[in-house]
Amino acid sequence: MAMYGFMAMMFVVAATPLPHDAREGPGDMRPARDGNIAIQEELDAARRTATVEAYDLFIERHPGHPLADVAREERQRLLDKAGGRRG
Which of 10, 13, 59, 85 pairs with 41 at a CA distance of 20 to 30 A? Predict the structure, then answer.
């Protein structure tokens, strides 16, 4: 009798409808966000922080990305403004 109750419970769980999002197929999913947006947001965060260390971290994480050149220029301007000339 206990086994029958367990089996009935398993059927109920298996037959429970999934939330709408979980039933959507691959064609119904939103496309992945463009990775460049996340990289731009990281550069924006470095700008808000406005420290050499923040720019260094960005450059280290994305050395070949075109925004790394922008970060290098902004980092250098920050150093120049602070009176330092390291590069």
Answer: 85
Rounded to 5°, the CA angle 71-76-78 comes to 95
Q: What is the mean pLDDT of each run of 10 residues along the chain (87 residues)?
A: 49 53 63 90 97 98 97 97 71
Does pTM top 0.70 for this prediction? no
Distance (Å, whole) CA 80 – CA 59: 18
- Residue 38: which region, alpha, beta or left (left: phi > 0; alpha: psi -120 to 50)? alpha
Q: Distance (Å, rounded) from C-alpha 82 to C-alpha 56?
A: 16
- CA distance to 7, 10, 13, 65, 74, per residue, from 3 (Å): 6, 11, 15, 60, 69
Residue type for position 75 = R
